[in-house]
Amino acid sequence: MERKRELRSRILKIRDGLSVEYIDVKSSLIADKLKRNKSFIEEDNILIYVNYGSEVVTENLITYCISECKTVACPRVIGDGQMQFYKINSLDDLEKGYRGILEPKITEVCEPDSALVIIPGVAFDKKGYRIGYGKGFYDRYLNEHENYKTIALAYSCQIVDELPKEEHDIKMMQIITD
Questions:
Q1: 54 by DSSP, 3-state: which?
Q2: Hey, which CATH number is domain 4-176, 3.40.50.1010, 1.20.1440.120, 1.10.240.10, 3.40.50.10420?
Q3: Element (H or E) spanning 169, and its range?
Q4: For strand 123-125 and strand 130-131, is the pairing parallel, antiparallel, or unpaired?
Q5: Measured in whole angstroms, how far is the alpha carbon of residue 62 from the centre of its chain?
Q6: pTM over 0.85
Q7: Residue ranges per domain, the chain?
Q8: Which of 28, 32, 76, 151 has the fewest CB within 10 Å, making it most exposed?
């Protein structure tokens, strides 16, 4: 089995080679599937990443959630390997932060009793495990919020049969692909 580093590099090379048109079309398909997802429909608190690079695009999803009167929060890096979700009211509440990724500029922490966390990743396996960029932000956060539901968004080219996993790796409840 490929080690995490090699697998991350290989899948990122594939994902980064996707055309803008492909990313737009597939991201729209994935967003439509998410909007019909029971967990998404029923949850009022959506903790969602802001896409970076060639990730599945989320800006339209964020705007949609706000228009549906859902509480929306996005992650902000607060320390080494640590992140927190902060409530936003529009995309205007975001500014460039860690690694140039858009993060909330307002500091109203969002830690509801229940939430659906929409998660990015580099690679996913058919059992629901993921590999991110290697800093462990989401694994640490989810270990502290075990009651939150999780849905990862990915292109089909990011799915592999099996990933190497470690004890701290969190399994996604669902992965939505194109």
A1: coil
A2: 3.40.50.10420
A3: none
A4: antiparallel
A5: 12
A6: yes
A7: 4-176
A8: 32
